[in-house]
Design brief:
Strand content: 5-15%
Radius of gyration: 27 Å
Shape: globular
Structural class: alpha/beta
Oligomer: single chain
């Protein structure tokens, strides 16, 4: 004997069959993705993405081993599309952002390195041309990148201006190439401590470089790190400070260009790699009128500090 509820269940099944059973299989329709490298001129690519056609292809080739998809199933993004994902496809942005950032981070050792013996002589000459400061192989400074601080230890990230930030140590050359970076300290940490705790400090204390690095008065005076006179009491000291300032201003220009080119540096290592690529390839800085476009790209390409593990 059938249970009281079985007839009701069967009626529901029949109802659903008549309602939905006549529907055939609907083939999924894929919209052709935008191809910005084909769509835009070189000038438009510079304006929208801060890199030209050849530069974008170069970057794509660098990260291809990390980003190349093994299948075209679901019309997966090409490497070029992933690199340019910022303006094109927000629906896949979380996975793509992570993949692109990790791929760029893996290139740090390739694009960020201290001058070797062959490069040092040329580096010294270029620095001397800047400010008549002899024997200079680098300039050092720290710069703050503002972040949304983690939930724990929030106070550690509040810098002297009362804003939450990461304090980044950068060493640059006369061409504004970043040759060393430390990206892990909260904004409250002093520049001198970041230097003392760095691998660069340990290396240069043990193996003196063939030249000097210039730093401001926040740093200690060391055999390989030269700071200005706090109070120049003689004409010679005043001339030294002038030459020191003219040469060391390269690091201030470097910080300014890095932040202008990448208005939001939440994934800092990726920005540093891209900056060095752009500088070495003579990629121009576009007019400020296009800044809102680049900010949009960066906001999508870069995740917050909480979502990415910062490395030295």
């Amino acid at each position: 004997k059938a249970s009281p509820g079985k007839g009701t269940d069967m009626a529901g099944i029949v109802h659903r069959y008549h309602r939905f059973g006549g529907r055939g299989y609907r083939q999924r329709v894929y919209v052709e993705r935008a191809q910005p490298l084909e769509r835009y001129t070189t000038e438009e690519l510079y304006a929208r993405f801060r890199f030209g056609n050849a530069d974008i292809k170069y970057i794509a080739d660098l990260v291809r081993p990390k980003l190349q998809r093994r299948t075209r199933r679901s019309h997966s993004l090409s490497v070029e599309q992933q690199v340019l994902i910022g303006l094109l496809d927000k629906s896949t942005v979380s996975d793509v952002v992570k993949a692109v950032s990790i791929a760029l981070d893996s290139l740090v050792n390739q694009f960020v390195s201290f001058p070797n013996d062959v490069q040092i002589a040329q580096t010294k000459h270029k620095f001397f041309t800047l400010g008549n400061m002899p024997n200079t192989v680098g300039v050092i400074d720290c710069t703050h990148v503002h972040i949304q601080a983690p939930h724990e230890g929030d106070w550690e990230y509040i810098n002297r201006k009362g804003r939450r930030s990461i304090n980044i140590q950068l060493v640059g050359d006369a061409d504004l190439i970043i040759t060393n970076c430390v990206v892990k300290w909260p904004g409250s940490v002093h520049d001198a401590r970041i230097l003392r705790e760095s691998a660069l400090y340990r290396e240069l204390q043990t193996n003196r470089p063939d030249g000097i690095i210039l730093g401001d008065s926040a740093y200690p005076l060391l055999p390989w790190l030269i700071t200005p006179f706090l109070a120049a009491s003689t004409p010679a000291q005043a001339r030294f400070n002038t030459a020191h300032c003219k040469t060391r201003c390269a690091t201030e220009r470097l910080n300014g260009i890095l932040k202008r080119r990448f208005a939001s540096c939440n994934i800092i290592l990726a920005c540093i790699v891209l900056h060095n690529i752009a500088t070495r390839r003579n990629v121009p800085l576009c007019d400020d009128v296009y800044d809102f476009l680049w900010i949009k790209v960066i906001q999508i390409l870069l995740t917050s500090f909480e979502q990415h593990k910062l490395k030295v």
